[in-house]
Structure formats: C-alpha cells, structure tokens
Amino acid sequence: MRTGYFYSLIFALLTSASIAAIAAPVAPVQASSAVVAMDAKASTESAKVDLNEADAAKLQKELSGVGEAKAKAIVAYRETNGPFTSVDELLEVKGIGKAILDRNRDKLEVN
C-alpha cells in the first residue's frame, strides 16, 4: 500500500514539473545568433592571406591542407627567393601541389 502511495507522489511531482517546463516562457535567441553568424561571414569574406607578409602560424591557421611543416616551407622559400610575385609561384614550394593551391586560391593574395 505504501509503495503505491509513493509512486503516486512521484508521478504527481514529475507531471507538475513537466507542465511547468512546457508552460515556461522561452526567451528569443535568434537575434544574437544571427549577429554572430553575420560577423563570422563578413570576416571570412574580406580576410585574404598575403603570401609576402603572413607568418607561418597565420598560414597554417588560414589555409586548408597547410600544416606546420608546409607553412614553414612557404616562409623559408620567401626568405630564400624573395617575395612572391604571384599566387601561382606557391607551386615552387616543396609540399605544395596544384590541389592545395586550387583549394586556397581565393584566400590568397600577393602584395
């Protein structure tokens, strides 16, 4: 008998908790997430990596398929041969192939 009474109390407690959760007002979250998404999109569109000014850490972070070793190779090539004259000159760097260049072409610039 006591077990049935205990289960009835638990059922009543859970029911009232679920009703309270359903009836609780929900704050609008969409406004803040839209601003964050817009800011992220604007920063990725406008930011291009300059091959003649970027350090190895920035190259590694911004370019896909470029890890620490390839980023250091790009910087070493630039220090040895002078500044890049075009984005296509990146193919001369050991470890950088046509696929990596094509994947990152829209992110790169030479000034």
TrEMBL record:
The keyword Signal applies. The keyword Signal applies. It holds the Pfam family HHH_3. Residues 1-23 form the signal peptide. One of its GO terms (biological process) is protein secretion by the type II secretion system. GO terms for cellular component: type II protein secretion system complex. InterPro entries: Competence_ComEA_HhH, Endo/Exo/Phosphatase_dom_1, RuvA_2-like. Keywords: Signal. SUPFAM superfamilies: RuvA domain 2-like. This is Competence protein ComEA helix-hairpin-helix domain-containing protein. It comes from Pseudomonas fluorescens.
